[in-house]
Structure formats: structure tokens, C-alpha cells
Amino acid sequence: MRLASFDRLQYWYPGASEPALRDVSLAVGEGLTLLAGPSGGGKSTLLRAFNGLVPHFHGGRFGGRGLIAGLDLLTTPTSRLARSVGFVFQNPEAQFVHGTVERDVAFALENVGLPRSRMADRVEEALAAVGALPLRTRRIVTLSGGEKQRVALAGALALRPALVVLDEPTSQLDEEGARALVAACLRLRDSGTAVVAGEHRLDLLRAVADRPLTIAGGRLEEGIPPPVPAARHRPPGGFGEVAWRLDGVSAVLGQAQVLDELTLEGRSGEVVAVTGSNGSGKTTLLRVLAGLLAPVAGSITRPPGRTAYLPQDPGAILHRPTVREEVQLTLRRSGARDGLVPALEEMGLVALAGRYPRDLSGGERQRAAIAAVLAGVPALALLDEPTRGMDAAARRRLVAAIDRLASEGGSVVVATHDEELAAAASFIRASAPGSWPPPRWSASPSSSGRLRARASRRRRPR
Predict the structure, then answer these.
(1) Which among 113, 151, 224, 456 is most buried, taking Cβ atoms within 10 Å?
(2) CA 80, 83, 88, 93: dihedral to nearest 10 degrees?
(3) Which three-class secondary structure state does DSSP give residue 275?
(4) What is the pLDDT of residue 425?
């Protein structure tokens, strides 16, 4: 059964001289379709054509024809297409309406007039499908990035759409959450729901996809190229003095105690990778260290100089008209006289310097936020899920940037589910005398039910 089809689809964003989609022809039926490709290659644009956001919301020029559930893409409003297409954005925060999980998942059901007597069961069904039933009564603002991603998917599933479209669905999920999401996709497929997922994180979905596709430069091709081995970067020398320290720090988020008498430290030239499950306290740890969340107990020491913080949502810090101006603002505030071109070059942004950051793809926007945050050589860099939406080339650029910061004496803390990044960060630290493997912090539940961070140091073998 054909659920969606495009015939020689072309699309230009407003003011763009080059098309984002070039003669895309595609028919989607039942099964799991995996869409890969580099950042800015057209993944999100094509995915948004499935529910009419392209072209109805974004505007611009459109060519060719699209049929979604038998409805003409150009003449059918997005509100009507949404009944047949469940969509989960790369940035789940963009689609939340209500303050609590249960109310937000029920929002779409309210819009179509589902009787309240049936609504509770549908909400429970959708949350259970993505392993988010324990979050039912939580407030959205208290959720981790990965938990928000699951709730957003539940909201899309509540309508029982014929087609579910997912933009970077596993980008913020831990390994357990990513496997649960893939399992949910397979259950949807087996029940007759078509699933289209655009991803950079291909390890799990590649193995189960019925149809792999790649889009680059706006052109669609069958198949996905094999992965490129991760690059190794030159590690810095030994560590310097203690740069930052948390001493007996406890922190509360909402009504929950997230950090419990936490004592950690990091040195100049050191990169610390913080890993752990969704909701285990990684983001809270970074926000406390950045000074954005006051602890209820304990003390914090930071190095002299600027502390740079990259949140999970890059859009939260990008407000200037161009990428260039975002970087220049950081340089001015840090007192640096130059550094614009190196910052842009480091993250591969020279060609995008004049673009409005919010018009970029998710991966490009992430690189812009990293360039803006790291410009001016911060003394302490705190990066929360920095590879969100990134392709392999951008990830290599990020590792090189972390390498540079550490080699220049900066201290870096990275909270990540990306095992490849965590391994690269560990490699950067591997040459430190007397420490092998280097310290790796892992946030996990304590026996008391509250959350602690653990660290292990083992001596390097001779």
C-alpha cells in the first residue's frame, strides 16, 4: 500500500539560490525506511514534506507533486495531513504545548475531538509504546532531553497515524532508550504503520531498516554508504592544576534530588566524559557547574576566565541575524580581538557565515552553536550532548576542537550518549601520566534512590 509519494519534487527555501530538494521521486509504503545523509543535505526538508510543513509553513518555491495518504500536498492544509502523519521533530521542545506529559500527549486527541472516556487509554497506550509510562505525571521542564524525545514520540503515536516520520529520533537517547525506540519502530512496522526515520546515528536502525536511503545535496539515492572510521587526534600532554571542583554538592530539580553530595574535580588540559542513562543527572551536573542552577548544599570552584556552556538545544543560545555575528558577539564579550575566521573554519562554517542560524539544518545549527560557545578560548567548556544532529564529518571536527582546547590548557566536560565521542574524549586524556585509562565519570542511581556520580581511576600499566 502506497502511503506517500513524491514525483520530481523540488523545493527552494525563501531567498535561497539553490534548491534544498532536487528532483526527488520516492514512494513510501509499509515498512521502516531509513534516511541518512550529511548535515544540510536535505533530510529534514524532505521529512517535513511528508506533513506539509514544506512548503506550507516554511514558504519558498515548490515544484513537482506530492501525495500523502491520497491527499495532494500543495492543496491540503497541514492540519489535515497531521491526522495521517505523526511527526517528531529533531528538537522535541518545539512541539510541546502543555506543561505536563499526560496533557501534552492528549493534546492531539483533544484537537480531533476524541471522547474523554477513550482519551486516557490512548495516552497510556502511546506512552507505554515508547517506554515513557513512568513519566506520565511529570512536568515537561523537569525531563531530560532523551525523556522529552520519548514523550514527543508518544504524542505523535496517540493519533494512531498511518505514517510516522521521525527526525533524528535517537540523537538524545541513551543506549537503552535508543534500543527501546527502535523496538517501538519495529512494533509499529509489524502492526502496519509505515515509519520513516532520518538519522545520523545509524548503528541500530541500519540493521533493521527495510529500505535504506541517502540524501545529499538535495538528491536522493538508494542505499547508505559504509561508515567512515573515526579519526584519531593527537592527545595533549599531562594535566595541569585543578581547574574546577564540586565539593559535597547536592542539587534539586523540581521536587527531586538529582545530585547527592557530589565531589568531583577536573584539571586544566583534561577532558571529562560524563555518561549515564536519560534522567540520571548529567545535564543538572553541567548546569550546576556552569552556575545556572544553584546547589542546595556544597561548594563550587571554577577557573579564572570564561565558562562556556552549550545546552542540549542549540536554538536556545542563537539569536543573532547571522552565524558570523553569533561568533563575533562571543569574541567581543570575551575581550578577544580576533579569532572569527579560525572559529568558523574549525567547525566548517565559512560558507554558512552569512546565514541566519535558525534557518540552518539541525546539524549545521549545532556546529554554529559550538563555534559561538568555544570562540575566544574559554577556561572551562561544558558541552551537553554536543553531537546531537551531527554527521560523521562534523563529529570529527568537534573532537579536533576539544583536542585543541585541552592542548591549550582548557578544561572540558562533555555530557554525552555518543559512545564514539566518549571514546575520543578518553583518547585525548590517555597520555596523562599515572592514569590509565583516564577518569570517566558515570552518573547512575544510588542505593538510596537518589543520584550520584561515580569515578574510577586505574593506574596505567608499565
Answers:
(1) 151
(2) 70
(3) strand
(4) 64
CB atoms within 10 A of CB 185: 26
C-alpha dihedral, 397 to 399 to 401 to 402, nearest 10°? 170
| Confidence at residue 444, expressed as pLDDT on a 0 to 100 scale | 41
Give the residue carrying C-alpha cell 572551562: 380
CATH number of this structure's domain 4-222: 3.40.50.300
* In CATH, 242-454 is 3.40.50.300: yes
Instruction: Report d(CA 166, CA 209) in Å as an integer.
Output: 13
pLDDT score, position 238 = 62
Distance CA 189, CA 183 (A): 10
| pLDDT for position 239 | 77
- Residue from 47, 50, 48, 40 nearest 19 by CA: 40
Q: 310 near 382, Cβ under 8 Å?
A: yes
Question: DSSP character for 10?
Answer: E
Question: HSE on the CB side for 343, CA within 13 Å?
Answer: 26
Distance from C-alpha of 56 to C-alpha of 174, rounded to nearest angstrom? 34
The pLDDT assigned to 452 comes to 39
Decide if 376 contacts 334 (C-beta within 8 A).
yes
pLDDT for res 229: 55
Decide: residue 447, CB within 10 A, 0-12 exposed, 13-18 middle, 19+ buried.
exposed
Total residue length of the chain:
462
Residues 412, 441: contact at Cβ < 8 Å? no
Percent of residues in the chain assigned helix, strand, coil, to nearest 5: 35, 25, 40
Query: pTM of the full predicted structure?
Result: 0.69
- The domain limits of the chain are 4-222, 242-454
Q: How far apart are CA 323 and CA 368, in angstroms?
A: 6
For the chain, which residues score pLDDT lower than 50? 232-237, 427-462
Q: How far is CA 275 from the centre of its chain?
A: 15
Looking at residue 330, its pLDDT comes to: 93
Residue 445, all three cell numbers: 542511581
